[in-house]
Design a protein that fits this description.
Six copies of one chain form a homohexamer. By secondary structure, chain A is an alpha/beta fold. Helices cover about 40% and strands about 15% of the residues of chain A. In chain A, the strands form two sheets. Chain A has a four-stranded parallel beta sheet, with helices on both faces. In chain A, strand 4, helix 4 and strand 5 form a beta-alpha-beta unit. The first copy, chain A, starts with a strand and ends in a 14-residue tail after the last strand. At the A-B interface, strand 3, helix 2, helix 3, helix 4 and helix 6 of A face strand 3, helix 2, helix 3, helix 4 and helix 6 of B.
Chain lengths: ~250, ~250, ~250, ~250, ~250, ~250
């Protein structure tokens, strides 16, 4: 099984970290390819950044589809463009926020999310609501660190994340913690050990869910919301992005 | 007051129709400018098309912001990129789906939406839910016409829309009807007259809501979800789209 | 366009203030008439007062309808009798709570309400729920002042309101603030300036929404919940209030 | 125990029927008094009628409170003025819609309501939502009869109600039926027998719930939403209705 | 009328206390029988204990049904096995959590629950949601006492419960308090008196609701979710528990 | 990895079929053991049967825990006793209804469930609500076959299931179908092929989710709702079932 993981921002060290986290949990027969698009923001912090990551993300998935990848992971906690990716993929497409919440809800009753910046809080609350997880979500907390601080050599960012994780356990009644940024993927295991509650990284969770769905022979349904895009002209610089129907469409 | 209306697809006849619908309801002191981006899909039918309209849409709004427009309308019924637009706008930004639902809920208890293709139904249901309108929405119906059929000379598409509007009134208990595509903007008035129930076009509704908000002196809050984007490098072809903080930021 | 604003309590100074707030935001072509009924409570603080404002409120709207007003505003934050007013009005009827929440939700993600007495909190929470705004409402706060304290010469009440507004911004994650009493209409502009977040007065918001709806040619739907009342006898002192069908009924 | 039942319309035959239905289920030690106000609409069909029943209803409850009634039933299926009645009552106040839904939810999983006119449907749906019964309510159906047709000698109205009850059982998956008008109180027993599913009259249900609450020693909480009204002047014809605090306040 | 109350745990002193609480509120003509099964946990604290109380509980109800009891109360605040009991009962079956919430919602707007151990909190929150009470429930609080501490001679547990009740009134905006354990049934009356807000015991509430439903002639609907179990073999030690259809089935 | 699958009914042919379905999708390194308890109903059709499967189910899981199984699947579509199983398991416990809904929601927007008997419909609707899937669930349909008909040699039951699956696709707008009974596990693959939409069997889905969670190193959180049961005496025949704390507790 081959899984393509797209980091929708353009910071190579983060793509590298994401790929490592994915490989750490992948099953023996799973091949992981982790990519980022050449174009777009170096980190995704808010709606504007999130919009501009989409063309690159979709090109990566489109290419991955033609290369026959069995499934796809979108490795940004805002789950950007999942619906669009599903329209152009035969196999399953899983976002790391939804994956982490699914995993948390299976091993705990209520959970909190620890993310980077306060501006991400309303986006994550809205995702929780879209996924039907609003009654499970105890609270979204921000460690008040920019995404790229997680790429620094120093451990300062990790210290702040851990402090917020501890607060979530003590104050929110959270039975599990979700790390709300792909850049925190390397922190989950040690935080789980230190706190004694499940601390969940969405990248790993998404890889395992894709493996599970592919293992079940499930493909993205083309019967409704995720039907193949309709072929049509795209004007100007984006002309190359117009959808060309695949053979199996 | 100057309002910029962006048609996020690249079909000029539709932009023209949208501009006319907007001017037909604008207050005397309101100047309407209707634009579409040079890049992107000729119509927006699904998530994939919706993702690729965003760069062009956001460039239009960014330019409009630097040109001092007082408010913005995004004229596609999927309300694409509203959060991103709000991050880069001082004035209010209103999408036509939300606008139409707000108007409908003020003059009727329950309403139905008549849109173009069945694949739009789940997207509109999800928007209704996001806007807290799920208890007002009786049903989303599709007239089974591609968006660009509404641009044809022949009246065939309009006939199908009218038939579905009549069915919604007869079968759904709908007290008002929303036309679920910017390309239907020219049909609202005559359908209202023929049916005797309010038939609402989102383009007009959004223009009037922007006028209302600007008239109240209200600007997009920068205190949380819609704070200015953080300045940061964008890689590759999108480098020019990196956000440059405005003076008032 | 002529808009009738009914203050459903019987305190003339408050009616005057409401009229001023309305005229301050009305469009050039809009004529504002602000009235209060001769009968009923001097302020509306709870369900009991709210019930006794209805006969007077409805007489005002009935008269306004026969005088050909284009739209109506009910200027009490409990939105009393909106459904009944809509049944007897051709044009739109907008309550100031719903108007303020609609405006807030278009310029901010989450908002708090600052009202007068704690007993109003459950009523406003219930309205937020009825309007589908429960996910947007961060918190309803009471400044612990009786309504008529807002009519005093001294600024003591305004000081308490401002303190609560500041607390809402600091503690609730509110991106906008709604002033939860028509008697606070004069405080919105200065509080907006001082705090830097949108502070919204429902009276102004309702006037602009009525202007918007009338400008769109929308009238209250008579197809269901807001159909004209059925003509029937009213016994005793209320005999004169039995509904006489209008010509257009 | 003495229970005051107020029929908020002014049709004496209906008050009589309601009193009979109440006495038919009351416990041996319960004294039932059924009243209607002298003022107001002969039937309540919509928001406008509902608003004008309130002054008379509240005077009845206020008098009943000073006469020491132990609890109160408001016998109109729109549950008008329940919050206001609770503010002026020491004992419990129960509306017949809420009572019927509570009873139905304890003996069945899902239920349908059969009411009089289609215009009542949205009001009842909104009540179901307010009471947290939206997941239990299968459907609200209207037998298309004006309320006062239920007071006619002929059985025509009863036949229509029965037909709609049978349809609800066959088509809605309803496990119990609620009769959605106080004027149907005499039909419940025979419809239960004929259909074999619980058919519930709200008048009886409310009487038994008041008996239950009084038997538990429970009184309306004065700690928040239902605190005694604040004493204050009422202007004009309603001056006598200003609340005079009781000794126990 | 004969009501069977089953305490699903096997602590006789608690069964005795429950019986006394039931008799204290029962109507003159009501005979109360309080039982506990011979088998199972001495207290129910969590899902595991709750599962093992079911065989004994169901045998008690099955016997009660064949002895002709008119209605049933399940006296554990987790409302275990209510659906199963309803399948095998002709008369109404009421759980004490649902009963207490119904009573609270009729005399107050918002309420809090004070229970024993923190592990019960998520279960009670889930019940509130199932009963449509999530908007009424202010908070579930735990007094941090094991269930059987309530059976001790010393008043230590009662003191802790009272402290938590006072906190709920002061901090949660609770207008009524529900005692979240059948073992607290003897504390409700004195706490009501001391605090001045309704403090509700579910055992008493359930008894009165069963009396009310039986008094209305209502039986558990056999039309859907609570139809009689299908006769079928049970293997092994549970063979005797296979359902034998009653004559009235 | 060793996964224990418990079929909570006592029909050996169904346990065999469930084990085969599990092995068909299990990863190479996964060992599947499928068991049923010696005690209890031969099939689970309703709340009563569901209650009596619990002691046997929990004994199986308790034994499995002491034998060191890494995770557990409860193979009945009512998801009986999941919370109780989680309290006594170190590894993850997944029910087949939740598993199937999680899988469906990742490859489709809306789905329908096809189950056996109509009496299962309200139970499954309630589970969908508990799992936050109420907006995804289009409809629960019953093929009107008793569970054990699926164990017959003849294909009659399978034909009925297929007919209902086709109706769900045609009439509900379902983009995926869930088979709502463990006894249908052998039908999923062929129905997927024939219909072209994902048809999901919960047994397979649950196995893959357990593999995923174990692969992530996630264990059931012991911090709240699923903490180990408290050690305490069990009276009578169930004395052996009292929880003995494991070493790792």
């Amino acid at each position: 099984m081959r899984i393509l993981i797209v980091n929708p921002n353009t910071t190579a060290s983060m793509t590298e970290k994401i790929g490592q986290a994915a490989r750490a949990v992948a099953a023996p027969g799973t091949e992981i390819v982790a990519l980022d698009p050449g174009d777009g923001p170096v980190s995704i912090e808010g709606h504007y950044d999130g919009a501009f990551c989409l063309p690159g993300l979709l090109r990566c998935v489109r290419n991955g589809e033609s290369e026959g990848f069995d499934g796809f992971v979108v490795a940004c906690f805002d789950d950007p463009g999942i619906g669009a990716c599903r329209e152009i993929a035969t196999g399953p497409v899983v976002g790391i926020c939804e994956a982490a919440m699914v995993a948390a809800a299976l091993v705990a009753n209520g959970f909190s999310v620890v993310t980077t910046l306060p501006r991400a809080i309303p986006l994550i609350e809205e995702l929780a609501h879209r996924y039907g997880m609003e009654r499970r979500l105890r609270r979204v907390r921000a460690a008040a660190i920019p995404v790229l601080d997680l790429e620094e050599e120093s451990a300062a960012a990790a210290v702040k994340v851990q402090a917020e994780v501890l607060r979530a356990i003590a104050e929110d009644g959270a039975e599990a913690i979700i790390l709300g940024c792909a850049g925190m993927a390397d922190l989950a295991a040690s935080l789980s050990q230190r706190t004694g509650v499940p601390v969940i990284d969405g990248v790993g969770a998404a890889v395992k869910l894709v493996e599970a769905l592919v293992g079940l022979g499930l493909r993205t349904s083309k019967a409704g919301a995720y039907a193949w895009p309709l072929p049509k002209p795209f004007a100007g610089d984006l002309a190359e992005d117009a959808f060309e129907p695949p053979d199996q469409g």
